[in-house]
From TrEMBL:
Biological source species: Actinoallomurus acaciae
Domain Alpha-L-rhamnosidase six-hairpin glycosidase positions: 241-454
UniProt-recorded name of the protein: Alpha-L-rhamnosidase C-terminal domain-containing protein
Pfam families: Bac_rhamnosid6H (PF17389), Bac_rhamnosid_C (PF17390)
InterPro entries assigned: 6-hairpin_glycosidase_sf, 6hp_glycosidase-like_sf, Bac_rhamnosid6H, Bac_rhamnosid_C
Domain Alpha-L-rhamnosidase C-terminal: 567-635
Length: 675
């Protein structure tokens, strides 16, 4: 889209740098007089996050041809051009951000070029197009430099886009969302696109669970150059998988998939990619039932680190079943689901709570954000959620005995959590039994979202978060200066997205304000069309140059805007049953499409001065439950169903805030409320 910088440094740049923007026979010449430390730099801006292989059209080159390198960066902030930047990266890989461990990881010196890509040498006969041999999974900026004296004439630079390989039209979304707030609309699509950037073939990953001991693994060995050509074992190599991030770690993680799955189902409907990902993870289950939380980073990796991610796998399969009715959930993956859940249940100790450190030497300690062996509210809420969800799948499978057992375990667990992890004085959930005076965001967010918290405690604890955690860029993990917290104070997208969504569950419209603060802020920064892995307290990316700025677990608002604001939510597998319950939250209208295995659900609503109108298309072989805020008079398809504060038709109920019509048959329906 543009040339961001053309810096001759110790060499020269001749001709218009903008000649590199299009192939037209005009060139810009880069001439180097030394090594990469003095090479001229030409930086191009693709206008937003993209992914793929760089293509450089070369018209001519000196007889002694210098090596041509491309450096990639997701943001201008961490594009290494100043001396000492990114731990000294400028001397090795000018124009790059850091995508690899351990060279240049925050706080460590950059010791070798672990990030630039070397293009093949220019052939004897020019012009020719040189293609990067390795894809870069996420970048906005590409910087070209030379590694020795000589000159190169560059006619054009482009990228062969490689992400989302199963989606021929990146804008051809099966689902969509629009509303009266254009910022929220941009947030919905940025979330969808973030997950598209994270979707790629399982032969282009960094993590590796292959059984071959000689297979390359990640983190890299000293001196190793950047590459993304490892294989996710057990996955169909012809079908895409969903990775945690485009730039890194380029590996499926079950915690990330808990957000990425619903985003996928609601936007691109790339069910095949999610199925392939979950299939690979299910098949790496260990003999004791534990499901590792990611595609194993090295072939010899073992242990049970991050027990919470074992539970996220159960949640991922449940969501896949709920949105798609894929028979694999109750078939091929059933042993993996029950084995993973039973492994976690065995970690409940005499306190009645789970603490994964009790497992043994390799624990299971550690979560999405920090390492802890404590009896955490977050992990216990995750276990409670997994028990209830698996019970629902067991009933659908006809295993009522197993469902009853899981429900009984969940009930006992809830009693223990409410007795030992609720702080009634503060009105918030504790970090853990061991740290009762710390009240982190994730404790409340997951206690509420899992359904563990009773309505009064849900409202009180969410109010506590708003009073104590909210800052200019969202909701903090813990208030600044908290003593004894297991995590530093920053903005973490997984619990933040969960908190925003949970607020709608208690009819708290401030969920939209939280989305605007955190996700609206990110859209105003680089790369401008995808969401970040995390945000520091000062508003910068949370892991400095290492931060992934297209990280799928940050895309929860896409789900919340469809499920909560538009209001379309599945309640039966594959949307056999679903609810449409809008939450206007100050908006005047919203409309959207939700793809389902039984056909598209379309919904639109408008909140006007005279009343509320909801229009819904219910697909065949489904049953809808429609709801609008309570009004004096409510009609469905012109027939009065609510008047004078009571139902006037069968299957109509109210909770005081909404009027519900149950059992709505397939077809086009209009539900209207007048004041």
């Amino acid at each position: 889209k543009a040339v961001t910088a053309a810096d001759p440094r110790g060499g020269t740049i001749e001709g218009a740098p903008t000649a590199a923007l299009r192939q037209d026979g005009r060139a810009v010449r880069l001439t180097g007089t030394g090594d990469r430390g003095t090479s001229p730099l030409l930086t191009l801006d693709f206008g937003g996050e993209v992914a793929g292989r760089a293509l450089v059209r070369v018209l001519g080159a000196s007889a002694d041809r210098p090596g041509l390198h491309v450096c990639y960066s997701e943001s201008r902030r961490f594009m290494a051009t100043a001396p000492g930047q990114n731990g000294g990266q400028t001397a090795f890989a000018p124009g790059c951000d850091t995508a690899n461990i351990w060279s240049g990881y925050p706080g460590q010196p950059y010791q070798w070029d672990a990030d630039s890509h070397t293009l093949p040498p220019a052939p004897a006969h020019l012009p020719a197009t040189l293609e990067d041999g390795q894809p870069r999974g996420g970048f906005r900026y590409a910087t070209i430099f030379l590694d020795k004296p000589g000159w190169v004439d560059i006619d054009a630079v482009a990228a062969d886009f490689t992400a989302a390989p199963g989606q021929a039209n990146l804008r051809g979304y099966r689902g969509h969302f629009r509303s009266s707030d254009e910022e929220l609309n941009r947030i919905w699509y940025a979330g969808a696109y973030t997950v598209q950037i994270d979707t790629d073939l399982p032969t282009r990953v960094k993590g590796n669970i292959a059984v071959d001991p000689a297979a390359p693994c990640w983190p890299y060995e000293p001196g190793e150059a950047d590459h993304a050509d490892n294989t996710l074992h057990y996955a169909d190599p012809r079908t895409a998988v969903v990775l945690d991030g485009g730039k890194r770690d380029r590996d499926p993680f079950t915690g990330d998939l808990g957000v990425q799955g619903p985003v996928t189902y609601l936007s691109t409907d790339d069910v095949a990619a999610m199925r392939n990902t979950l299939d690979a993870l299910a098949r790496q289950q260990t003999a004791d039932g534990f499901v590792p939380g990611n595609g194993r980073v090295c072939p010899d990796q073992s242990g049970h680190f991050s027990g919470d991610y074992d539970l996220w796998f159960v949640h991922d399969v449940y969501l896949h079943w709920l949105y798609t009715a894929d028979p694999k959930a109750l078939g091929d993956w059933w042993q993996a689901v029950t084995g993973a859940l039973d492994w976690a249940v065995r970690q409940i100790d005499d306190s009645g709570l789970v603490a994964f450190g009790a497992y043994g030497g390799d624990g299971g300690c550690g979560t999405y954000a920090y390492s802890s062996c404590d009896h955490l509210t977050y992990t216990n809420a995750g276990l409670y959620r997994a028990l209830r969800e698996t019970a629902g799948m067991a009933r659908a499978k006809g295993r009522t005995d197993l469902a009853s057992s899981y429900e009984a375990t969940a009930a006992r667990l809830r009693t223990a959590v409410e007795a030992k992890l609720w702080d009634d004085t503060a009105g918030a959930y504790r970090q853990s039994v061991e740290h009762p005076d710390v009240h982190p965001q994730d404790a409340t967010a997951f206690a509420v979202s899992s359904g563990l918290a009773a309505p009064d405690r849900a409202r009180r604890s969410l109010a506590w978060l708003r009073s104590n955690d909210w800052g200019p860029y969202g909701s903090l993990t813990v208030p600044a200066g908290t003593q004894g917290a297991a995590v530093d104070s920053h903005y973490e997208p997984l619990p933040s997205g969960t908190e925003a969504d949970a607020r709608f569950g208690v009819d708290d419209a401030s969920g939209l304000e939280l989305i605007r603060r955190g996700w609206g802020y990110q859209l105003a920064q680089d790369p401008g069309n995808t969401f970040w892995e995390k945000t520091a307290a000062d508003g910068t990316p949370g892991l400095a140059s290492f931060t992934s700025l297209a990280h799928g677990w940050a895309s929860q608002p896409t789900v919340t805007l469809t499920n909560r604001v538009l209001g379309v939510t599945p309640t039966g597998a594959g949307f056999a049953r679903f609810t449409v319950q809008p939450h206007p939250a100050g908006l005047t209208w919203a409309e959207g499409t939700v793809p389902t295995p039984r056909g598209d659900i379309t919904a639109s609503w408008r909140d006007g001065t005279h009343g509320f109108r909801l229009a819904v298309t219910v697909p065949g072989r489904t049953t809808g439950r429609l709801a609008i805020p309570v009004h004096t008079r409510v009609t469905l398809d012109g027939h009065v169903v609510w008047a004078g504060g009571r139902a006037t038709a069968k299957d109509v109920t109210s909770d005081g805030a909404y009027v519900y019509v149950n059992g709505v048959a397939p077809g086009h329906h209009m539900m209207e409320g007048t004041r």
